[in-house]
Amino acid sequence: MRLSFAAPTSWIALSTLLFSLNASAGIEQQLSQCAAKQDKLDRLICYDKLAAKVGNKAQSSKHVAPVSKPAPTPQAAAVVASTPASAEASFGKAQKVERVELDKVNLTVASVQKNPHGALTITFNNGQVWKQSDTRRYRLKAGDKVYIEKAALGSFLLGKDDTNATIRVKRID
After folding, report:
1. Distance (Å, rounded) from C-alpha 127 to C-alpha 109?
2. Start-end ranges of CATH 2.40.50 in the chain?
3. Is CATH 1.10.3470 the classification given to domain 104-171?
4. Closest listed residue to residue 112, CA positions, set 134, 135, 149, 138
5. Please, which pLDDT band fits residue 170 given cuts at 50, 70 and 90?
6. pTM
7. 131-162: b (≥16 Cβ within 10 Å) or e
8. Fewer CB within a 10 Å sphere, N or C end of the chain?
9. Separation CA 76–CA 13 (nearest Å)
10. Structure confidence at residue 146 (pLDDT)
11. What share of the chain is helix, strand, coil (3-state, %, to 5)?
């Protein structure tokens, strides 16, 4: 029973000695001492205490009286705004880009061509060229007013307001 009691007291004495040595040693020395510990938990505690000390020193250095600086020029302000710190501050944040997305476009047919397989190639008055991507029959002539709307999975449907039928199309130009 005496042996089990002596072991914890020696650990306490050893840890007190190490902590007193840590207080006077430099950060590099303290890091090497923490790394030398075999027990994972002791090593983690050592690193946590070292990090807390470094954090307290960094906070105490922030409270130093400000030094007067010359007034920043517009060029200097632009350089400060594009520093890596601002890039790090926005790292991982979702970038919101405002895009205007249309669900439906009304167009007028300029010309219609049919390929040997029967698929339509439609040129509109605004210069866009669309190609039929399915095999359905669809009547279309120059001057018709049509609409193209978004469909499922990034595809598009072409139709007329006065007709219930649509065909699947793909833009080629």
Report:
1. 10
2. 104-171
3. no
4. 138
5. very high
6. 0.44
7. ebeeeeebebeeeeebebeeeeeeebbbbbee
8. N
9. 56
10. 96
11. 40, 20, 35
